[in-house]
Design brief:
Helix content: 25-40%
Order of helices and strands: EEHEHHEEEEEEEEHEHHHEEEEEEEEH
Strand content: 15-25%
Structural class: alpha/beta
Low-confidence stretches: none
CATH architecture of the largest domain: 3-Layer(bba) Sandwich
Shape: globular
Number of helices: 8
């Protein structure tokens, strides 16, 4: 049974950096809105990640529009510092966030959007889905065939080495999460990492040259301008990023090797309860950490004709076939920086202005051009 349906002009689904950034820009435009977030506390999406996690961007590029990240601008914030910043951001701008509201259905009736979050129901003229592609953890089907004595964790559940039992570890997945977790485990375990070579940034991002190149070239130019759908190079590269992800940023292969992490071929199955590698070997390990990614999970709750498989169809976050529906925070929504702290504000502002244009609050001429 549902109580009375709550009427809100604009609903923002998701209270992470994307949703808060959208809220900031909607507030500046004087548009009434409500942010719904499943967590019990703003920033929990960061707090619940592994203990040693740090951002890839220095504080200078880790703040949202309107409020710089505090402290040393060259410092790479920890995940808890980021969580605290988001909580402070929402409080500073007095953004209306409804916590503990996990949206389980979005649909449309009689020209309005309906949003259900448990026993609560909302009606809105416009909805902004401010969530990333990484909602549902993925593990291969053969994981169930591993010996019951092997501890298995997905990266979403990994916090620290003490969660694992004594003995060897296989980290499956050699992207950024896999590489960083392998390095985290290396002092206490013999670690092997399995997966394709995703490439890597050829400099230390914390060094002088790294900071210079990362800030001036990679973040400002390459990720934000060149690799965008406003650029032919970006349009050509986008399908690869969507299917394969990006290169290693902080943890480089030489550092893994120096820590004793052994690189092995892809894990393709199970033989006699043990992980089977592509070269036919099996590994006698006591622990497996699956860094095998996530799926968007949108089909489970978005009941609208806007999905192409797992992902929504949109133009830089705006859904032309369903006016009033928007997306922010997706992988390569407009550029590589779209899912990053320093890039989400541009997309949030574009979408907020789209909302304002649709309700007649501003003229279409004020809509920012995509770049």
């Amino acid at each position: 049974m549902y109580g009375d349906t709550e009427r809100v002009e604009t609903i923002v689904i998701g209270g992470g950096q994307a949703g808060l950034s959208v809220g900031y820009h909607l507030q500046r435009l004087g548009i009434p809105f409500l942010i719904l977030d499943a967590n019990e506390r703003i920033g929990d999406g960061w707090r619940e990640r592994w203990d040693s996690l740090r951002l890839f961007t220095p504080a200078k590029f880790s703040g949202l529009d309107g409020m710089p990240f505090p402290g040393d601008r060259s410092h790479f914030p920890t995940k808890d510092e980021m969580a605290g910043y988001l909580e402070s951001y929402a409080a500073h701008f007095d953004l209306p966030v409804r916590l503990g509201a996990r949206v389980d259905r979005l649909w449309r009736e009689n020209g309005r959007f309906l949003v259900r979050a448990g026993e609560r129901k909302f009606e809105a003229d416009q909805v902004v889905v401010a969530m990333g592609d990484f909602q549902e953890p993925v593990v291969p089907d053969f994981a169930n065939e591993l010996d019951v004595g092997i501890v298995q964790l997905h990266s979403v559940d990994y916090r620290r080495p003490s969660q694992l039992q004594e003995g060897d570890v296989l980290v499956v997945g050699a992207g950024n999460s896999g590489a960083e977790i392998a390095l985290d485990l290396a002092p206490d375990h013999r670690v092997r990492i399995s997966g394709r070579d995703v490439g890597h940034i050829p400099f230390r991002i914390g060094g002088f040259l790294g900071r210079l190149i990362l800030v001036r070239l990679v973040l400002r130019v390459l990720f934000h301008r060149v690799l965008s759908i406003g650029n032919p190079i970006g349009r050509k590269a986008r399908p690869k990023f969507l299917s394969m992800g990006g290169p290693l940023v902080r943890t480089r292969p030489p550092e893994l090797q120096a820590a004793g992490v052994e690189r092995v071929p892809r894990t393709v199955g199970v033989r006699e309860g043990r992980p089977l590698l592509e070269d036919g070997r099996t590994l006698d390990v006591r622990n497996v950490v699956w860094c095998t990614g996530f799926r968007p999970g949108f089909p489970e709750w978005i009941d609208l004709p806007v999905l192409d498989g797992e992902r929504p169809t949109h133009e830089s976050g705006i859904v032309p076939d369903l006016p009033g529906l928007y997306f922010v925070g997706l992988l390569f929504l407009h550029s590589v920086s779209s899912e990053m702290i320093h890039g989400v504000g541009r997309d949030a502002e574009r979408v907020a202005r789209g909302v304002a244009v649709r309700r007649g609050a501003i003229r279409r001429e004020a809509f920012p051009a995509a770049s």
